[in-house]
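Quick one, probably user error.
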């Protein structure tokens, strides 16, 4: 009995230490995302101003800045932007005011939530040590800190997508239908959150269940697919039917084959048809591989400053490189049977951003972190 009581005491104390360290990591990560949020960065960008005004206008008169009543997508700069951030920001706009801090707080909260999710996923897939390492890396990730301090719709969408994948895992582990329903809800909301998730969420909803088909029948995932489709249907209906033809959806206007430069090249270049075909087809391949380059990941790929800066960073801190190498080499040992999921998620993330013009578009690929 003495040994049993001693073992229970050690387990109890270990849990207390784990939650204490995790709370400390989350507080540090949250502080880095929220301190002086109203002044760093020093001014709002065009999209932030548009989101703030739309939230305020919707809250006061039920119309956006262009006079549309409760729109599904918000018109902006001759395109349409995703609606989730502006709508969720409405109560925050009322509580904190129509100001810099008010419009950025939701993104900072989403970035802080990703720290907790990293810990939860790490604990489920590899135990408490991996949970603390994952939380610490997310808390100190330079790109996550940067985007969390700006009202980026993609940061909120990355949180929704991650929640969707996490509940997919819970369904695989416990095989309770409620988890597929909740997963479909968050995957659908991620589609409301940002245009990258239009392609990424459906891909994950198909590929990840396929990878787990040996333990759980593929057809058992149908509630997740149904809920995701029902939640996302208004967005796709709005895109296909409602949006005016003289204003392009942002997801369409930024595809590499419809971008102005690519269209000009196809129409005006003197290159032969074979070379044009190679340029058009290889552009997204080059964009995809660029996300995995050393410079993008550990050099200056985070693109946090205009122009060259000694403070520029890659997607991850250079000290993460050894951990990445070990993780890839021993992925089965680290993550067990869930290693295929982790690797597939990571490899799928850059596909949709690779289909847009402008090379590595890090803001469009935040789920990569």
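Nope, works fine. Designed sequence:
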């Amino acid at each position: 009995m003495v040994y049993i009581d001693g073992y229970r005491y050690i387990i109890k104390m270990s849990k207390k230490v784990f939650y204490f360290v995790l709370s400390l990591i989350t507080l540090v990560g949250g502080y880095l995302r929220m301190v002086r949020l109203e002044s760093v960065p020093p001014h709002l960008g065009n999209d932030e101003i548009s989101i703030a005004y739309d939230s305020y206008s919707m809250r006061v008169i039920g119309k956006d800045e262009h006079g549309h009543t409760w729109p599904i997508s918000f018109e902006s700069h001759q395109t349409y932007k995703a609606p989730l951030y502006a709508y969720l920001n409405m109560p925050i706009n009322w509580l904190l005011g129509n100001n810099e801090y008010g419009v950025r707080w939701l993104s900072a909260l989403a970035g802080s939530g990703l720290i907790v999710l990293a810990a939860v996923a790490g604990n489920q897939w590899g135990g408490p040590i991996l949970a603390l390492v994952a939380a610490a890396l997310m808390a100190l990730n330079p790109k996550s800190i940067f985007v969390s301090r700006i009202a980026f719709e993609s940061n909120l969408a990355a949180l929704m997508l991650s929640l969707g994948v996490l509940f997919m895992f819970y369904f695989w582990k416990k095989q309770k239908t409620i988890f597929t329903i909740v997963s479909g809800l968050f995957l659908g909301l991620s589609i409301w959150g940002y245009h990258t998730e239009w392609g990424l969420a459906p891909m994950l909803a198909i590929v990840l269940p396929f990878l787990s088909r040996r333990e759980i029948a593929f057809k058992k995932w149908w509630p997740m697919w149904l809920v995701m489709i029902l939640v996302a249907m208004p967005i796709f209906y709005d895109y296909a039917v409602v949006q005016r033809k003289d204003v392009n959806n942002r997801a369409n206007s930024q595809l590499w084959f419809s971008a102005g430069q690519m269209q000009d090249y196809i129409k005006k270049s003197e290159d032969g048809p074979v070379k044009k075909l190679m340029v058009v087809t290889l552009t997204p391949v080059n964009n995809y591989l660029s996300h995995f380059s050393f410079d993008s990941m550990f050099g200056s790929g985070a693109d946090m400053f205009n122009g060259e800066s000694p403070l520029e960073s890659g997607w991850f801190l250079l000290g993460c490189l050894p951990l990445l190498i070990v993780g890839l080499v021993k992925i089965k040992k680290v993550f067990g049977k869930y290693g295929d999921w982790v690797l597939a998620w990571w490899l799928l993330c850059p596909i949709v951003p690779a289909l847009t013009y402008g090379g590595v578009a890090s803001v469009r690929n935040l789920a990569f972190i």
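Strands lie at 74-76, 79-81.
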